[in-house]
Design goal:
By secondary structure, this protein is an alpha/beta fold. 38% of the residues lie in helices and 14% in strands.
């Protein structure tokens, strides 16, 4: 079957179409963002049962490229790219962690954490980057010159872009806000051979510059403004449903910065609904850091007046964004999914991370924002005891080791570190150790 997809203007009054092989990010007629649209009539010629069987048969297999948690759904993601041009590290297939102990503490026994950070570069960004870099490889194979692929980043996007470009033999350029990413994140694009440019600004400043640079059509823009990445990220929804035997949870909690993940997961759920695989939609919660909360403020105004802001420094550095590119796409999804937007203070997110870690997780600060928001919503009764809830964990906690160490050593300003757990020093003799055990056990 000839499955097809194309870019289409997000503006309902316009809907102009463009080929996916075009180097374009906004509609030429009205300036709106673009979205990837599929030939749904062709997709619907295959029954829901057939699609589920096909995806189940491909899961955890090695037949290229379907063993990937993204490319397993190739017909729904990027059908036009040739298999030989797919750039994949068999990303996805990330586990759902049943956070039973943490859930029991807050009266939510059916709490799960989708560990999207258990990926090649340690974050969910791999899901979208495999799609984008594969499309670039296809464009080059079609005869167009692409000198480099570029992004602005708070850390994880740059790591993913650099890795996938290195695997594809392409040059990558990353713009980072100086001093605002962890060492673990900084070393990743350096090690993968990217051209790393550290700018004395924040993410929004980096984003403005990369958009100017990418006006040169031989430099391809890799930020989530490019809706190709959304196609990979939407597979989180599909994979999650597959892991629950093709059922969806009642609530999904997503940390929100540039807001691409909100629109992506919503798109995945809508596609499954359209195909008859699921019959209900989950409620979507977007969680923001209090110091970078433009969507939360917009939500509290009843979506009447969106105002970008200057994001303040937050430990959730990847979502330290005051002017999110995907704001309108995200709001559209939130309205369709009975969405809630909540925020978390620095102390709330830090304590939520530590509390989750004490029950077996190992969370990044952005997941801490989502967990802190969940704690508030559960306490208020906005989430019920019987709800099945999935928190999207966007990155691996190992990328933020200094943040965690500072928490336990009480070195985070204005944070009480209620769940600190420091090593105990003792002489190397049995009596001293036994005294500690008697006291602590």
């Amino acid at each position: 079957m000839a499955y097809k997809a194309w870019f289409e203007c997000f503006n309902n009054a316009c809907r102009k179409r463009y080929e996916l092989s075009e180097v374009i990010y906004n509609c030429e007629d009205c300036g709106s963002l673009l979205q990837v649209v599929h030939d749904y009539e062709e997709i619907l010629k295959t029954s829901a049962a057939q699609w589920m069987r096909k995806f189940d048969e491909r899961s955890h297999r090695k037949m290229w490229p379907y063993g990937s948690g993204v490319w397993r759904f190739k017909e729904w993601v990027l059908p036009g790219v040739e298999d030989k041009n797919v750039v994949s590290m068999y990303e996805g297939e990330t586990n759902l962690f049943w956070a039973e102990r943490l859930g029991s503490e807050i009266g939510l026994p059916n709490l799960w954490i989708k560990l999207c950070g258990n990926s090649h570069t340690g974050s969910f960004k791999d899901l979208g980057m495999t799609v984008l870099v594969s499309m670039v490889k296809q464009i080059v194979a079609n005869g167009r010159e692409i000198r480099a692929v570029a992004c602005a980043s708070t850390g994880d996007t740059s790591a993913s872009l650099a890795s996938y470009c290195a695997a594809a033999g392409m040059k990558s350029i990353v713009f980072l806000p100086k001093g605002k990413v962890s060492n673990e994140q900084l070393i990743q694009p350096i090690a993968n051979g990217a051209l790393v440019i550290s700018l004395d600004t924040d993410f929004d400043g980096c984003m403005k510059l990369v958009q100017e640079i990418s006006k040169d059509k031989s430099i391809y823009l890799a930020n989530s403004k490019n809706s190709l990445r959304i196609e990979g990220q939407k597979t989180v929804s599909i994979e999650m449903a597959q892991q629950f035997d093709w059922e969806v949870p009642d609530v999904v909690v997503i940390p929100g910065g540039n807001l691409g993940n909100v629109s992506a997961l919503g798109k995945g759920f809508k596609l499954m609904e359209q195909c008859g695989i699921i019959s209900k939609r989950p409620r979507i919660v977007c969680a923001q850091a209090e110091k970078a909360n433009p969507l939360y403020r917009y939500y509290k105004s009843g979506y009447k007046n969106f105002e970008p802001l200057q994001a303040e420094k937050t430990y959730a550095s990847a979502i330290q964004i005051g002017d999110p590119v995907s704001i309108h796409k995200a709001v559209a999804i939130l309205k369709e999914f009975d969405g809630i937007v909540e925020q978390a203070s620095e102390e709330e997110l830090a304590d939520a991370c530590a509390r989750a870690d004490r029950t077996g997780a190992y969370t990044c600060p952005h997941t801490g924002v989502a967990l802190a928001a969940l704690f508030k919503l559960r306490k208020r009764g906005d989430i019920n005891q019987d709800d099945k809830v999935v928190v999207i964990s966007t990155a691996h906690g190992l990328k933020f080791s200094q943040f965690k160490l500072d928490y336990h050593e009480s070195n985070l300003p204005d944070i009480k570190s209620r769940h600190a757990n420091l090593p105990l020093e003792a002489p190397a003799n049995l009596d001293a150790v036994l005294k500690i055990l008697d006291k602590r056990l």
